[in-house]
Amino acid sequence: MxxxxxxxxxxxxxxxxxxxxxxxxxxxxxxxxxLIESFNQLANNDNVYVIVLQSKGENxxxxxxxxxxxxxxxxxxxxxxxxxxxANLINAMRxxxxxxxxxxxxxxxxxxxxxxxxxxxxxxxxxxxxxxxELSIGIGPFVIAPAVERKIGVSxxxxxxxxxxxxxxxxxxxxxxxxxxxxxxxxxxxxxxxILTSKLSSYSLQAMKEVKKILWxxxxxxxxxxxxxxxxSGRLALSEFTKGAxxxxxx
Length: 251
Description:
By secondary structure, the protein is of the alpha/beta class.
């Protein structure tokens, strides 16, 4: 199975994590675990002051979970383990003491929206629409919902969840608070991110760590909460409705 790839570059105290998968930058378990490991390693690297998260390619930032792995879930424990991948990634991003800057160059679906929400400050270009499709296949955005709700509120989360077949634009996401700024193209976005990260790399590392603690207050229970949510998703993934929906999507 194609597991994608990931690499990290560190320059002038700025770490850039880049991931890629040929299936619309989806995230199979191996790639999820590599992302988690990267954040954990950078969390303890005092030569890194800020982290930029990005994906390769154009038009799609992240399509969420691996369709092949999702389709192969055969019992509740496998389902819980599968959805725990995103739970563990969001928690790793939450607990990483460095600011995580999101660079979004295209659409995000499902778990991809959760990853965007777990960044501390996120930028996008105009074609970076978002969608939560989970309800349409018989599950729900249970694992990522706390991160998404934290950024955009219950009302906007409800709209994304219930209207699961429609895309919301990058400007809608900006208005709701998911994106800080939306740019016309990647050139303008990268210029802004480079200026911002250069400034951050000159700031007090300890001060930024303390600020991040404040930004993520009242989330210490997420270790258990997201695991519980993963179990709900894993159970629903075994339903006849979901299995039928996945067969239709494969065709």
